[in-house]
Amino acid sequence: MQMIQGKWKIMIMFKLNEPGQHRFGELERHIQDVSHKTLTNQLRQLEDDGLIARHDFQTAEPHVEYELTDNGKSIMPVLDAICDWGDTHVDPKLIDRSLCDE
Amino acid sequence: MQMIQGKWKIMIMFKLNEPGQHRFGELERHIQDVSHKTLTNQLRQLEDDGLIARHDFQTAEPHVEYELTDNGKSIMPVLDAICDWGDTHVDPKLIDRSLCDE
DNA sequence: CAGTATCCTATGGGATACTG
DNA sequence: CAGTATCCCATAGGATACTG
Q: Of the candidates A39, A49, A62, B99, which lies 20 to 30 Å from B87 by C-alpha distance?
């Protein structure tokens, strides 16, 4: 639980689970309401917990990409199950869908 | 996530999922390290979220029992999945098994 | 027995500004 | 662009004592 609790961690994981490269700025734009500091914090925690990997392209223009590790991929079905349960058992009025994709 | 995050909620749910009646004092004894106040808090939150039900036997000797609601039962497979993932993917050295049953 | 009240600390997360 | 630093606030949870 400690590894996945955090206001934005599930959203980060779902985003990273989508195909393609994922850069810091992209995540920040995609997850509208997260603060800059909190995003870096949660990314760092996920990284420390081995769920995601960070690739720093040591170029002049800072360029960092994140991706799921195998361990991170293995937890996605669990996160799916959490979201599915929420969709089917939680009163829609209580859910802030603005935090989600659709 | 908000409904299941809370230091002891998963343990409470698993305990209530076991057959038999479950009283406050029993939970308090079973979950060794939880503080009295925190246990009541988490029970109240689970109750407010509709995952458990509280039965107050209005007797001279206070007697309260808790049980899972249908909604609460429906989330147990998800909690199982979380625990199974933890058992198979998290370094055992990082897990405090003293918080668990066996 | 079950619950409440009070006090305390640690942590999470937001806002903002600054750095290379 | 990506990250750090600082300040601030709300909440979680523990310790303890009190109530019916």
A: A39
Establish if B79 touches chain A: CB-CB under 8 angstroms: no
Domains of chain B: 2-101 (1.10.10.10)
The model's pTM is 0.88
Q: Please give the residue that has the higher pLDDT: either B100 or A95.
A: A95
Mean pLDDT over all residues of chain B?
90
Gap from B51 CA to C13 C1', in Å? Answer: 27
- Beta-carbon pairs below 8 A across chains A and B: 34
Q: Which residue is nearest to nucleotide C11 (CA to C1')?
A: A6
Q: Which nucleotides of D are covered by protein (CB under 7 A)?
A: 1-6, 12-17, 20
Phi, psi of A55 (to 5 degrees): -120, 115
pLDDT in tens, B82-98: 999 999 998 776 666 55
What pLDDT score was predicted for residue A8?
96
| A89 vs B contacts (CB less than 8 Å) | 71, 74-75
Q: Within 13 Å, how many C-alpha atoms sit on residue B29's CB side? A: 5
